[in-house]
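Thread: quick sanity check before group meeting

JM: Hey all, I'm pulling together slides for Thursday and realized we never actually wrote out the predicted structure for the chain we discussed last week. Dropping the sequence here so it's in one place. If anyone has concerns about the input, flag it before I start.
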Amino acid sequence: MSNESTHPALKGGLLALLAAALFGLSTPVVQSLGKGVGSFTTAALLYAGAASVAWVLRRPAAKEAGIQKNDWPRLFAMAGTGAVIGPVALAWGLQHTSGSSASLMLTLEAVFTAVLA
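JM (edit): ok, ran it. Output follows.
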């Protein structure tokens, strides 16, 4: 038996801690490296880095469902808000606030999302 199959909760917990640490690191990194660069550039670099790591670590599925014609409008709407407007607003906000305020707001993001839902 491999270690991965005998302790999936441990692996998941360690990956969650790694994700939390990297997310926490992103605030000061974006603030320091984003000075003098526009919000669009900062967001593009942030997401390009994340996409590069995801591409290296990906595990392609054996077979994926195809995209239907009526899925395209919803897909473009999600891409526009989640991959363009959201990251640009995040980068702009991180460049215009203090590190402690940004960390507090990012920490409370899940709470605010739950309240709005």
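AS: nice. The chain has a mean pLDDT of 82. The chain has one domain: 9-57+71-116.
JM: adding both to the slides.
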